[in-house]
Amino acid sequence: MAKAFYRLQKFLRRTQFLLFFLTAAYLMAGSLLLLQRTRLVIQQGSHGTSANQALTVPDEMTGVGIAEPRALQNPHPGPRLLVGMDALQEPALDQRHSPRWLVSRNSELRQLRRRWFHRFISDQEPMQTAGFKVIKHAAEHKGTYIGCFTDDSRERTLKGAVFYDLRKMTVANCQEACAERAYTYAGLVYGAECYCGNTLPATASKPEECNSECKGEKGSVCGGVNRLSVYRVEELQAGARRRRNVIYRGCFRAPENLTDTFPASLIQPNLTVEMCSEFCSKKEFPLAVIRGQECYCGFPTGRFSLRNGADGLRCSGTRNTSSAAEGKYCLVYQTPVQDTRCTDRKFLTTKSKVFVALSSFPGAGNTWARHLIEHATGYYTGSYYFDGALYNKGFKGEKDHWRSRRTICVKTHESGKTEIEMFDSAILLIRNPYKSLMAEFNRKYAGHLGYATDRNWKSKEWPDFVNSYASWWASHVLDWLKYGKRLLIVHYEDLKQSLIPKLREMVEFLNVTVTEDRLLCVENNRDGNFKRSGAKQKDFEPFTQEMKDLINRYILTVDKALRGRNFTGLPREYVPR
For this UniProt entry, which segments traverse the membrane (predicted)? Predict the structure, then answer.
């Protein structure tokens, strides 16, 4: 019996070792298969989205799984019925969208995961080595390569215009953008930032120090760390000159002392608008002011704010001859040059003691408001979400953790007691629900700058979208009114119509002091990079009468709630429609 037991024990020990080795072999085989598939995905991705084009994912998301960015921006409306009617029943969270929307979201989720993994793998492969070779300058660039220069962010020479594209920046795009704005030089830094100007940087650097590959163009150099790759773009100007826009701002009363008001001037017989605009562009001024044969260049200032225009008849002559009656009035034109007095931005040097939200319903102009706040205060705004498109265009606070308190305020579309009470105060941006719904529908199907097609508007998605999102528009405002600790209500329409007064009110709420000249600079750059070009008119009315009745009830509910909290009610243009 003892002998049999010994044999059984010996067999089990052998089986144990066998199982161990089989398990180890299985794991090794699986790992090899995973590595092989990963290599295949990366090779396929190189023919489509490059590693440099991949979206960056915040650190906090890597531990909890990756979600589709805009899906995070669609917090569900409150479950309660807002206006006591049966026309709209709040659907459950997993039943809110039609199956087609769920399939679309799943597809977007898979795509984002692939992009993140692709970016993660590519980041492990250092682009530069000890024997790094300087990237060759592509021969197809029309501009002349000048050299590599030191870039000092505090005393930047090329500061006439600034452009960001952290995903698709190329030398040609930078050159063209600078040429269209009448600049002579284009400089690229960090592989993704473009700067324009008419004066070369003072300090040259070694050619090999410009070693950053352009984010959107392999094999081309776009500066380096604190290093500018500078190109002369004069060869592009002849073609770009036709596309430059010189905008007529109007007829204004001339300041008492033009020489003190404007830093540069020119007296030229037979002066034309083109001559004055070209002169001021070379001097890097956004305004060209003409009085008779005199040309003045400068910025909007407290002395000359461009707020109170005069009757055009007071400026005698045509816009081309540009002679002003009795010398008391002048013609003002906007040159292609960007006003850069308010383009510098940074993170807060110390953590903010007050946690401020910039809250709105999607499509209510939150991105535009962030653009205004960043340029007015000089500080980045943060975001509860991560939007790669916004980050790529210069909203660097997108990548910062939303609770870092290094940003002046944090964008959010969230509603609900827990989410709202995390903030100490909030700017609540409200827009006409009809316009908000259309703007968000356009963004959903065509991105930040596009328009949904007629097919989208006439599909089943549009009525489903209105039924789901209209109640959210109302519940969002009602929740912030109920749970918000300290609120500043800003109506999008008021901000658009009276930009400076409303923006000053917002800046004061953020406890930041800014100069009048900086606010005027913001007004001069009011549109930013995320304004849809024109209002694409549809040949049909997207809202049915049933939709209008539903939305109007929500409007009346919100208006009553605002007045009940001693806030100004909704603008009259909201209802009736």
Answer: 17-35
Do both 228 and 252 map to the same domain? Answer: no
Q: Which of 204, 233, 262 is the last residue of a domain?
A: 233
User: Quick one: which H or E segment has residue 115?
Assistant: helix 99-123
Q: What pLDDT was estimated at residue 48? A: 39
Long-range contacts, 255-260 (Cβ 8 Å, 24+): 255/303, 255/304, 258/289, 258/291, 258/294, 258/296, 258/330, 260/303
* pTM given for the model: 0.67
Do residue 493 and residue 459 come from a single domain?
yes
Cβ-based neighbours of 575, under 8 Å, separated by 6 or more: 552, 555, 556, 559
Does 290 lie in the same domain as 206? no
Dist CA 4 CA 16 (whole Å): 19
Asked if 76 and 416 touch (Cβ cutoff 8 Å), the reply is: no
Q: How wide is the angle at C-alpha 148 spanned by C-alphas 379 and 127, nearest 5°? A: 80
| 448 and 520 assigned to the same domain | yes
First vs last C-alpha separation in the chain: 96
517 within 8 A of 261, measured Cβ to Cβ? no
For residue 335 the two structure tokens come to 């040159």
For residue 269, what are the domain limits?
247-315+328-334
Question: 198 and 258 in one domain?
Answer: no
Do residue 292 and residue 414 come from a single domain? no
Cα torsion 211, 212, 217, 222: sign: negative
Domain count within the chain: 3
Q: Chain-centre distance of CA 170, in angstroms?
A: 19
Q: Are 167 and 156 in contact (CB under 8 A)?
A: no
- Residue 364: inside a domain: yes
The rounded distance, in Å, linking the Cα atoms of 552 and 554 is 5
Cα–Cα distance measured from residue 143 to residue 141, given in angstroms and rounded to the nearest whole number: 6
pLDDT of residue 4: 65
DSSP assigned state of 310: B
**393 and 500 part of one domain:** yes
- For residue 131, being part of any structural domain is answered with no
User: CA neighbours within 13 Å on the CB side: how many for 509?
Assistant: 22
d(CA 204, CA 201) in angstroms, rounded, equals 7
Closest CA to 263 of 295, 292, 306: 295
Token pair recorded at residue 534: 């024109």
